[in-house]
Amino acid sequence: MTNILPFKGLRFDVSKTYLKDILVPPYDVVQPEERSLYYERSPYNAIRLELTRDKSDEDLTDYSEVRQTLDNWRNEAVLLRDETPLYYALRQRFQSSEGESYQRLGFFGALRLEPYANSIVLPHERTLAGPKRDRLKILRATQANMSSVMMLYEDREDTLSSVLDQALYGAEAVRAIDDSGINHTFCPLRDPEMISEVTSFMANRQVVIADGHHRYETALTYRDERRSEGSKELDVEQPWDRTLAYFTNAFSEGSLLLPIHRLLKDVRVPRLNEWKSLLPNWSMLEVRLSSPDNLDSILNDYLSPLKDRPAFAADDGTGSLLIFHRNPSANVSIRVIHEEVIEGALGLSESAVRDGALGFKKSVKIAAREVRRGSAALGLYLNALTPDDVFRVTRSGDVLPQKSTFFYPKLPSGLVFRPHEV
Fold first, then answer.
1. Distance separating alpha carbons of residues 202 and 198, to the nearest angstrom
2. Is residue 249 within 8 Å of residue 255, measured between CB atoms?
3. Do 4 and 109 form a contact (C-beta atoms < 8 A)?
4. pLDDT tens per residue, range 132-191
5. Which of 141, 150, 148 minimizes the C-alpha distance to 222?
6. pTM to 2 decimals?
7. Who contacts 248 (Cβ-Cβ below 8 Å, separation ≥6)?
8. Which residue has the higher pLDDT, 355 or 41?
């Protein structure tokens, strides 16, 4: 099903610069005020291949300066291209917000681009036009994949982990700890038998886009542009027929799916008796909340045990937390909450949500503080989805509501690039 091949990666020569000074979070995670920080960190920081220093310059730039930077670094031999096609293994060791230690294993490869309709590469959310326009400009300018799409595959026996783990203890492994405290170990996978094992294993699996829908769809658009030029035979594969992708097992212990909580800005918060009439099929429990600092423990005690069914906690900042749940549903919980609660009980239409009536926060404490500052009228705190939820929805041909889940940790840029060269 999934067509993945090794590729000749373009990598930094770590004898000339430190890996920790090169890495940068994904372009859509870097805040406007953080751009200068990464620009100043190193003349070779990967942000120079991703973003303008000033966000206000994005609309006018054609990213020719990024192409010039890329060419300069190659001419200086700061960036070196591998002579043979390889996969590249990555291990990320990190701690959860509860202080538990995890590691996530994965690898980078060149993924054959497929329309979603072919049901080989599956999306889990819809995209916006603005980010795709910007990423298309940089792809046209560089003719290279500067950052990776993050893909999930299903491997309940964790078959590939031993192959990847073995490679990461090789002599070529490089290591760096990023600003979030995540320990990255990165290494090319050179053994021909290992490369063959990875390729054949992945051929029988669908993959789901975890992060990078805009990058994937931009790569499809760029591929179609190049094909329309008619300069090459369509039955001969070209470099732009693939994109750089990172693959990780959705069912491994280190693949964390975290919830993204909802903030409702301009709604009238129902009174206690109104909640009961608005959600007649839901059970409700009122819990005292003296401070946002107590939220984690309260949600762990009252909301986490309800992961097998649609459930949420409603917080209007008055000192009471309302825990709601209903009988299990055939629909995934986040969709039930959107349809029956956000749209049904609270009256926010899909168009209102698209227009910004709904805010999203990964941190429940930050969400609670915004409610108490008056930046939002109501916070809805959710349980995380499971990998089974994501695969069930995507395999049915459906997508999840916007910002349904947060895959942690994020994948940094700067480890490996993929030029569109033979």
1. 6
2. yes
3. yes
4. 888 999 999 999 999 999 999 999 999 999 999 999 998 999 999 999 999 999 999 999
5. 141
6. 0.91
7. 104, 105, 106, 150, 151, 152, 153, 210, 255
8. 41
